[in-house]
Design a protein that fits this description.
The structure holds 2 protein chains of 2 kinds.
Chain A (H helix, E strand, L loop, with lengths): L2 E6 L2 E2 L5 E8 L7 E7 L6 E7 L4 E3 L7 E6 L4 E6 L8 E9 L13 E5 L2
Parallel strand pairs in A: 2-10
Antiparallel strand pairs in A: 1-3, 3-8, 4-5, 4-9, 5-6, 7-8, 9-10
Chain B lengths: L8 E4 L5 E6 L12 E5 L6 E4 L13 E6 L2 E6 L8 E9 L4 E4 L3 E5 L1
Parallel strand pairs in B: 1-9
Antiparallel strand pairs in B: 2-6, 3-4, 3-7, 5-6, 7-8, 7-9
The chains are: A mainly beta, B mainly beta.
C-alpha cells in the first residue's frame, strides 16, 4: 500500500521559488508515475506535471516554462520547483501517483501543503 | 484551466438519488479517454471514488456508480447519506493539452 508524505515551505514572497518534496512509502517506486497537482483556495484542481523513476517528465503546458519536477530514486522521493511565483500560485499543492503507464487516475494522494505567496 | 464542465452544486434529501454530469469534448472524453471521479471532504485531499468510468476501488460503497457516453460522463449517488456531503471532481486525459484535466467540481449538499 503506497503512502505519500510531502513537505516544503508554506510562505513565499513574489518572484521566489516554490520548493516541495514528496516521499513514497510502501509499494513500488519504479514503474510508477509521480505527479504534482494544485488547488487554489476555494477552486478546482490543476495538474502540474509528472515524472517517472527514469526521470522522464510531462508538464502542464500552462506552467511548463516555470516548473521542474525531479526524482531521487535512492530516497524514493520526488520534488517540485516552481519559479517566479506570484499570488496566483497560492494553492494547496498535492503529490499523487497515477500508478503505471497504463493507468491514468490518481491514487493515492499526499496530505497537501498550503503554499501562500504574499509580500 | 478546467476543460471538463460540471454543475456547481447538486442537492438531495437523505435516501434520494443524485447525479453529477461531466461534459468534455472530442479531445478528452469524446476521444475515448477514461473518466475518473474523486470525492473531497472539507479540508482533506481528494480520494479516488470511481476509476475507468465505472469501477469502484475497494472500500467504496456500491451506492456510487459511474457511466460514460459520447463526450460526457456521470456520477450517480443513490441512497444519499449525510456523509456524502463533499466536493466531487471528474478527471480525464486531454490529447490537445497532452495532459491530465479535471472537472470544475460539484458540491453535493444533503438537505
Amino acid at each position: 500500500q503506497v503512502q505519500l508524505q510531502q513537505w516544503g515551505a508554506g510562505l513565499l514572497k513574489p518572484s521566489e521559488t516554490l520548493s516541495l518534496s514528496c516521499a513514497v512509502y510502501g509499494g513500488s517506486f519504479s514503474g510508477h508515475y509521480w505527479s504534482w497537482i494544485r488547488q487554489p483556495p476555494g477552486k478546482g484542481l490543476e495538474w502540474i506535471g509528472e515524472i517517472n523513476h527514469r526521470g522522464n517528465t510531462n508538464y502542464n503546458p500552462s506552467l511548463k516554462s516555470r516548473v521542474t519536477i525531479s526524482v531521487d530514486t535512492s530516497k524514493n522521493q520526488f520534488s517540485l520547483k516552481l519559479n517566479s511565483v506570484t499570488a496566483a500560485d497560492t494553492a494547496v499543492y498535492y503529490c499523487a501517483t497515477r500508478g503505471t503507464v497504463s493507468t491514468n487516475w490518481f491514487d493515492p494522494w499526499g496530505q497537501g501543503t498550503l503554499v501562500t505567496v504574499s509580500s | 484551466q478546467s476543460v471538463l464542465t460540471q454543475p456547481p452544486s447538486v442537492s438531495g434529501a437523505p435516501g434520494q438519488r443524485v447525479t453529477i454530469s461531466c461534459t468534455g469534448s472530442s479531445s478528452n472524453i469524446g476521444a475515448g479517454y477514461d473518466v475518473h471521479w474523486y470525492q473531497q471532504l472539507p479540508g482533506t485531499a481528494p480520494k479516488l471514488l470511481i476509476y475507468g468510468n465505472n469501477n469502484r476501488p475497494s472500500g467504496v460503497p456500491d451506492r456510487f456508480s459511474g457511466s460514460k457516453s459520447g463526450t460526457s460522463a456521470s456520477l450517480a449517488i443513490s441512497g444519499l447519506q449525510a456523509e456524502d456531503e463533499a466536493d466531487y471532481y471528474c478527471q480525464s486525459y486531454d490529447s490537445s493539452l497532452s495532459g491530465y484535466v479535471f472537472g470544475t467540481g460539484t458540491k453535493v449538499t444533503v438537505l
